[in-house]
Write a structure and sequence with these properties.
The chain is α+β, with helices and mostly antiparallel strands. It has 13 helices and 22 strands.
């Protein structure tokens, strides 16, 4: 299974995104934008039809003009050898992918689909996030508000034991995996269209039962109304907790409301939970940084954005900007996992030059995406090409964390994603470890090695990695090979 967290991005301008791979808008659509806007000026090509070859040639032309790693693009690659635009793009970016610099971050998507998601989080599905462990057990790691999942009482910690279109044809998860692998499992959950219904046999948290759930349109709330923002009393010490699911435009008022609470109570110890956050809009990442950096001056750098040398006129330095709701965070615990990517990593990385060891990574290593996309549109075909075109760095120019942030942060603590407790619960393992870090208690650091990469490359892990992963049963978010925009930015979404 291809890992594309999100993208995403992932997720700077009407073109920029720093996500798993996510977005910050279109090159000519109504998507939310950040400023300034480096307007793309690709080499003019004739406006023609939408044949496969025309779309392939257009995509290749954009990559040759904007791609951050132009030296890796092959010459003489025959488009006719590839049956889709996606396959051709994957072949063009294969060298950078082998270097871990573009792990399917460059891709083709739908303008309409992407605009709908970034404006409101619009999606069609059951409304939950799924994680699969190495023993073949499928768990709901998070359920979203005002969705079919919530309406049926299906929440975090429930295990999906079997899937069917009726109770008469239920197939166990283990049988589906044995016969068809993860692709079969994804197919069994059905297409993301309104009205698609599935019968699920459940176990785990919530008890054993069978439910029928039909997919519906819903707007994803970036900060949960139930557990997304709270003040935790940890032995008389007040700690602000905020969980951001995705960097979309509606996160702006929700983040401001959360930090207004913290500021009103003088809180400077903050837990930022982005354990599943695949990225999104750079503008929201910058706002998040501002809200955490109320003690930073406007002359201090939050991040640098750097294009390839021929496009250096688009380079940008983003300084801190005052926000009425900002707090002067003195200690921050960032909860992350392998599903934490791009815009999430940008926020974490931006704090390191200022807080040093008082900004800690809690959980496991992050995904490793210090680059972002611009959006280039071919409107007549509903094609939006997301091209890796820029790198992000913090104030001290740290930015090469392609193997995750564990090797960049100055403090970290191992913890596992404890789905037996709700997110933000002080008894949940990662939240508890975050509280302990903020209190100055000792812990075991996270290995800087990318867990999945080191395992696949050498078949070996450190003892600490093995112990942690055994406790987690190596649960990974379930992601389709070709995820939709919502699935790219909200890894594991169905």
């Amino acid at each position: 299974m291809r890992r594309r967290p999100i993208a995403a991005l992932v997720a700077l301008s009407a073109m920029l995104s720093a996500c798993g791979g996510g977005s910050s808008g279109s090159g000519g659509g109504s998507t939310p934008t950040a400023t300034p806007t480096p307007t793309p000026t690709p080499t003019p090509t004739p406006v023609a039809g939408c044949s496969l070859r025309e779309r392939q040639d257009w995509a290749a032309g954009q990559l040759r003009e904007w791609y951050l790693f132009p030296e890796t693009l092959p010459t003489g690659l025959n488009p006719a050898s590839y049956g889709s635009v996606d396959a051709y793009i994957d072949a063009l970016t294969a060298t950078a992918r082998s270097q871990r610099r573009d792990r399917y971050f460059t891709y083709l998507t739908s303008i309409a689909e992407e605009d709908a998601y970034y404006q409101s989080g619009s999606s069609a599905g059951f409304g939950f996030r799924l994680g699969l462990d190495t023993s073949g057990r499928l768990f709901i790691t998070e359920a979203f508000e005002n969705t079919p999942a919530q309406a049926n009482g299906v929440g975090r910690g429930a295990e999906i034991l079997a899937i069917g279109t009726s109770s008469a044809n239920l197939r166990t998860v283990s049988a589906i995996l044995a016969a068809e692998g993860t692709t079969g499992l994804i197919n069994a959950l059905g297409p993301d269209t309104v009205g698609t219904a599935r019968v699920l046999q459940l176990g785990g948290v919530g008890g054993s039962r069978t439910v029928t759930i039909a997919k519906a349109d819903f707007d994803l709330r970036p900060v949960s109304s139930i557990y997304g923002a709270k003040i935790i009393d940890d032995g008389g010490r007040k700690v602000g907790y905020v969980n951001l699911r995705t960097f979309i435009s509606t996160a702006d008022p929700q983040l401001r409301a959360a930090f207004a609470q913290f500021r009103a109570q003088g809180i400077t110890d903050i837990i930022v939970d982005v354990r599943y956050n695949g990225g999104g809009l750079v503008s929201i990442a910058e706002l998040f940084g501002d809200l955490l950096g109320g003690n930073r001056s406007t002359s201090e750098v939050l991040s640098y954005t750097t294009f390839r040398s021929e496009k250096s006129s688009n380079n940008r330095t983003r300084n801190y900007s005052p926000q009425a709701e900002a707090v002067g965070a003195t200690r921050i615990a960032f909860i992350g996992t392998g599903g934490t990517a791009s815009a999430s990593e940008l926020v974490i990385n931006s704090t390191i030059p200022y807080l040093h060891g008082n900004a800690g990574l809690i959980g496991t290593n992050t995904y490793g995406k210090p680059v972002g996309q611009i959006a280039l549109d071919r409107a007549q075909c509903d094609d939006r090409l997301r091209v890796i075109a820029f790198a992000t760095q913090n104030a001290t120019r740290q930015g090469d964390y392609y193997n995750g942030l564990a090797g960049t942060v100055e403090a970290s603590c191992q913890a596992f994603d404890d789905i037996s407790h709700q997110l933000g619960d002080p008894q949940e393992s990662s939240t508890r470890q975050a509280l302990d870090f903020l209190a100055g208690r000792s812990c075991t650091p996270i290995s800087a090695a990318p867990v999945s990469a080191s395992a696949s490359a050498s078949g070996q892990r450190t003892q600490a990695q093995a112990q942690l992963l055994a406790r987690e049963s190596e649960r990974e978010l379930l992601i389709p090979t070709r995820p939709s925009t919502p699935q790219r930015e909200v890894p594991g979404l169905f």
